[in-house]
Amino acid sequence: MDIKVDVEERVQWIKHILETTGARGVIYGNSGGKDCTLVGALCRMATPDVLGVIMPCQSSANYGSDRDDALAAGKRYDIPQVEVDLTAVKESLVAAIGDELAPADAPDGAERSALININPRLRMTTLYAMGQARGYLVAGTGNACEYTVGYFTKWGDGAYDFDPIADMTVSEIYAMLRYLDAPSSIIDKAPSAGLYQGQTDEAELGVTYADISAYIKGGELSVCMRRRIAGMEERTAHKRALPLRYGSDGK
């Protein structure tokens, strides 16, 4: 694929969405990572009316390297950035829920997962509130590797109005970022959702993005790894489907 043509086609797609919906612009969450940087750049090429929102939430990295990279990306592509600190909001919500986050019959690890997933859900609530106030659409920032294995939060970063990079593998993301001259600090750092200190995507997944890309593209992969990724895809199918509605399955 010619990257120049690919970029132009994605930009035209975004323009078409804005024209057909009557939206005034685009808003997206900016964590300083590879995916949101590319989404921001593509949206900015489609319209001058783009807003990035930096939303730190407890993780110390959110206040340091994440913020620095998010601001660098905004500056590189001439996208205004605003910051909404969600730490106190999360703390208040967790305090309000109280012991209900740790019921006696909860599965192992459920409380930790519930706590971590609050962050992206608060962020998406924030984006939709700010976006609606401006007449903007919310841009998704997930890639094909993440979608395939379900590495996103349902009704968190999995909620959006459109996603211009949903079909792209991680290697394709990096290639396009280099073409668009993204800040080197963003390209060089390990992919991370920034949900807690020291978190990296591949360590949490237990598989590499290269393996997931090979699975998607039909490349060389051990039988064991192919089965492992296929299992992840199967277990997370509900994340990629519309909510179940009575009668919708023909029964």
Would you mind describing this structure in some detail?
With 251 residues, this protein is of the alpha/beta class. It has one domain: HUPs (Rossmann fold), CATH 3.40.50. The protein is built from eleven helices and four strands; from the N terminus they run H-E-H-E-H-E-H-H-E-H-H-H-H-H-H. It has a four-stranded parallel sheet, sandwiched between helices. Helix 1 packs across helix 2 and helix 2 crosses helix 7. The longest helix is centred in the middle third of the chain and has 25 residues.
Shape: globular
CATH superfamily membership: HUPs
State the helicity in percent bands.
40-55%
Please write the CATH class name.
Answer: Alpha Beta
Spell out the helices and strands N to C. Answer: HEHEHEHHEHHHHHH
Query: Please, how many helices?
Result: 11
Instruction: Return the CATH topology.
Output: Rossmann fold
**Which class best fits the helix and strand makeup?**
alpha/beta
Number of individual domains: 1
Q: Describe the strand arrangement of the main beta sheet, using strand numbers.
A: 3-2-1-4
Secondary structure tally: strands:
4
Q: Any guess at the CATH architecture? A: 3-Layer(aba) Sandwich
Task: Provide the low-confidence segments as ranges.
Answer: none
